[in-house]
């Protein structure tokens, strides 16, 4: 059985999807971009600030499912420019313990929603 996970502390979906789905003990998050959930504005000051907003949005979704970054087993990172990888990785690393960090892939794509620079989704296990 699946349970819909939703929180006002992360951006509301803008289409036919949910912030996350909990299926059994596994949480699947939708991709998050750098929307500030308080005002609905994109946070694009720098790639570091943008990535931090994405990670904070994901943190809020994890918390709504009573989970945290230690329970994340897989992440998918989509970026519009591989030259931003180092800056994204630096912020991303602040949220994980290197010894227990999840598996992940990072893929450069032609375009992302709202033409942002980074989108991240996660899978976590209770």
TrEMBL record:
Residues 48-75 form a coiled coil. It comes from the Bacteria. The keyword Zinc-finger does not apply. Pfam families: Ribonuc_L-PSP. One of its GO terms (molecular function) is deaminase activity. Signal peptide: none annotated. One of its GO terms (cellular component) is cytosol. Keywords: Coiled coil. Belongs to the RutC family. This is Reactive intermediate/imine deaminase. The gene is yjgF.
């Amino acid at each position: 059985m699946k349970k819909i996970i939703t929180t006002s502390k992360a951006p509301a979906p803008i289409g036919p999807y949910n912030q996350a789905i909990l299926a059994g003990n596994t949480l699947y998050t939708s991709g998050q971009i750098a929307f500030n959930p308080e005002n609905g504005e994109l946070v694009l000051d720098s790639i570091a600030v943008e990535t931090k907003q994405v990670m904070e949005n994901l943190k809020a979704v994890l918390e709504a499912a009573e989970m945290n970054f230690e329970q994340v087993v897989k992440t998918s990172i989509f970026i519009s420019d591989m030259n931003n990888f180092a800056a994204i990785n630096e912020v991303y690393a602040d949220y994980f313990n290197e010894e227990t960090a999840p598996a992940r892939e990072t893929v450069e794509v032609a375009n992302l929603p709202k033409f942002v620079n980074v989108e991240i989704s996660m899978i976590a296990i209770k």
